[in-house]
């Protein structure tokens, strides 16, 4: 287990019937990094990611998050600990404004319960003020000020994706799991999203763990890149190192480097 890892996957396996989708796999995500996970179809990336995110319970092995064994915890429990998964489905509340959508994110706080609202109105109000300020800061950071009072249902696809990114900032996630960010997104929007992910990482110190089929996006955002094949990690390095290794290129791309 490395000292500066925020996620440590240790000897994890998952079988589906007789098939070892993930086979005694170990890997780490360094705090403050944007770590990519790539590999050929069927390599076990989604299964591994699902085990980290709490969607699938491993048959064997452990997932350590921020020093704590979280193996088998559900996604909502991981959310409370600061691990957020995003982009799998856009799930904004379309009848609420962009600002209100962000203000909905932090749960489990004083002021949320009916008792607090009735009997401790000051506490509820001061908390609402703090959440609103935070939401406005997030809106500013993502340059969504011009649509902050727009109903989320009326936002463009790109603005919805930015809002989704903003949700992770409302709870100061320790790590954000990014799931196929590029799927269904045009180049301009993707550029905008990527720039915001970079700013969140560089300016605010967010850690990202990224599963993505778009190699250009991986090359732009991720260092290191972890390569999986046949259920385990086969390599880790910068995208240049990965692309320069003929064995990895063969295992992953099944074709010369230029084709990647
Ligand atoms: N729920 C499931 N039931 C049975 N087999 C599964 C299940 N989920 C995944 N598999 C199998 O496990 C293996 C790993 O699949 P996984 O989806 O994790 O790979 P992947 O690297 O994410 O692939 P892709 O890049 O195509 O999404 C594959 O052979 C897949 O068919």
TrEMBL record:
SUPFAM superfamilies: P-loop containing nucleoside triphosphate hydrolases. Keywords: ATP-binding, Nucleotide-binding, Transport. SMART domains: AAA (SM00382). Residues 7-255 form the ABC transporter domain. It comes from the Bacteria. Belongs to the ABC transporter superfamily. GO terms for molecular function: ATP binding. Pfam families: ABC_tran, BCA_ABC_TP_C. It comes from Devosia nitrariae. This is ABC transporter ATP-binding protein.
